[in-house]
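Continuing the batch. This is chain 6 of the set; chains 1 through 5 are on the previous pages. Same settings as before, nothing changed between runs. Recording input and output for traceability.
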Amino acid sequence: MTISKPGLRPASPNFSSGPCAKRPGWSPEALANAPLGRSHRAKVGKARLERAIDLTREMLNVPADYRIGIVPASDTGAVEMAMWSLLGERGVDMVAWESFGAGWVTDVVKQLKLKDARTIEAAYGELPDLASIDFDRDVVFTWNGTTSGVRVPNGDFIPADRKGLTICDATSAAFAQRLDFSKLDVVTFSWQKVLGGEGAHGMLILSPRAVERLETYKPAWPLPKIFRLTSGGKLIEGIFKGETINTPSMLCVEDYIDALEWAKSVGGLDGLVARADANFAVLDRFVSASSWLGHLAVDPATRSNTSVCLTIVDPDIAALDGDAQAVFAKNLAALLEKEGAAYDIGAYRDAPPGLRIWAGATVETADLEALLPWLDWAFATQKAALKAAA
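Output for chain 6:
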């Protein structure tokens, strides 16, 4: 079947799942107030860092007794800092259903080498049995599986009277999904995900229970300087008041503040969630009506409204071997990029072949609507080329 090339392209074809699209209307002028050439420890630098923390608390509805800190190395640094500083006091359940969760399992089992570590896993597209988690133990999990498009629907599976700590990688969930902080002791995310900020900085949010663990438990292994959250057995409170462990980029800080101010202008968390939900609905309707696309996430209740992961279910393509399917999906994404219709929407390298389209709050719904005809055109074009080459 021949499909005419669409005439209308998305105004912004940036559908990458990280770094994600900048907020609508962004320009470099948004960074004009960055205190460049100044120390981040100077009054002006610290004030901007504190502003970033305060706006984070406001936009995410973080409880007043939770600490919020800016830490090095993006979400990865924040998760590693939490695991290396907190784990080992009791057994841990590592819960994983996609590549990043699997990475945390590797770190705990092969790097920290914790002897009492259970792994609870599921294949791409599914959630593991959450009822099998033992919350008398510490638990590490992702709220939203960025590379599988599978999220936990809510925090109801976590008991309020848990004895262990819950460490939650929420990097593709924060600012687009409602995190239940009463069920979470550690929450991490990075600026370059849902708000489209710049990379290299992570956020670490600690509950009072997590702080208590830090002050009463000392890991058996040495901690690098950038992981140290305590001194003399007490929390280093300055980290959670803008006194960062290492030197942050004040340009990136200013960009994050700009994104947070924009978030406030569109209705805060409610507005951000509504934007992501509306974007997902556009893609969901398209997939439901499509003869060649399907959701990687099996259960509709667990489908992400940010990292929407799709599989190619067309019988002819599905009949190909795995390598050929991967090549087809890669060529499809490359064609869309060549046409300027969509950038960086190939599936993650460790995930099943397919597409991954970011639908977070900084993406405009109209751009996703403009993308849809291009998806059909690109698929038809690539399938025709495949048949011609056969």
